[in-house]
Amino acid sequence: MKSMHHQNYPLDNRNSFALAATAKDIYLLNSLQQLQQLATSLPEHFYILGGGSNTLFIEDYQGTVICPEFKGIAVTETDADYKLHVASGENWHQLVQHCLANNMPGLENLALIPGNCGAAPIQNIGAYGVEFADICDYVDWFEFSSHKVRRLSKAECLFAYRDSIFKNSLKNKGVICAVGISLKKQWLPVLKYQGLNTLGEKPTPKQVFDKVIAIRQSKLPDPDILPNAGSFFKNPIVDKASYQALVKQYPMMPAYPQVNGKMKLAAGWLIDQCQLKGASVGGAAVHKLQALVLINENNASGQDIIALARLVKQTVKNKFQVNIEPEVRFITHCGEQQIEDIG
Ligand code: EPU
After folding, report:
1. Which of 104, 202, 286, 308 could form a disulfide linkage to 99, CB 3.0–4.6 angstroms apart?
2. Domains of the chain by range and CATH?
3. Nearest alpha carbon, ligand 1 atom 29
4. Rounded to two decimals, what is the model's pTM?
């Protein structure tokens, strides 16, 4: 256990914003045994970190970071499906590549999403017409209180847009160890996202994969070159009345109907309409090609990014009376905080 525990540990390489923060304590876990051992004396303040592509360390964190680094991909098959059991520390994009290389398509719309497989169910990652919930079979989750791994079915995960049970009632109560994925052998391309409809009716999985990568690279900055956390804000969901009032004023406003009669708006469009592309505070800036992405352009501090995020949020609120909420999670010295509460 000792070798898995480090102190004053640099997190620069463990957050895609490349912020120079440290963790007072960190546990890098490779086995269930180590996790069980940690659970016997669980620190009071901890944060569970996956690939760090959705976490903003504003300053040095005085608590304990827990990193599940479990590895392994196991494949079985039924007549209709490939069934994958993927350990949570596997890299998501490498899994997508692995599936494609082994003739198990179905994940190509989710190519190039940064982060680990264990984080995929937490915020129900989604892009280009597919979300994790669509291919999820189950999630194996280690519960701190019972020291046991529970298998949650897809229904039990309560997936919604960028949301799941792991962000709500199970938050900080355990660690995701593995995900179960089901891929149909009868592959059908998902081409409903506008940019994919140029592929014709019968593209190959590789063509879809390549196109998704081309679209992402054309508007989303590469975190290795311009540190960022993908979409900084979630797309806001508004009720019908608010939508109707807005669309009257802005007939070109993109919006997507939801199952409950509500409408999802495009936060990127709202921010763009506020002329905020390229806006900056200190070393932090709004990306010039995708207004939903904030970037660490020039040695930004955590405070620079917070100040910029607040400016964006407030400007959108003033112009559209719509609240946009961060998708990114903020960690201060004392732990996770909401943007409104950070001093
Ligand atoms: N738009 C603008 N200006 C901008 C950005 C967007 O006008 O600067 C408009 C676009 O023209 C389009 C609409 O807003 O009409 C939506 O834009 P886009 O299709 O690029 O997608 P998004 O809503 O900005 C979401 C996800 C992305 C995902 C894409 C594609 C969220 C928070 N973001 O972005 O996910 O890749 O759809 O499916 O839901 C992520 O979560 O990190 C992420 C990158």
Report:
1. 104
2. 2-68 (3.30.43.10), 73-215 (3.30.465.10), 221-341 (3.90.78.10)
3. 127
4. 0.97
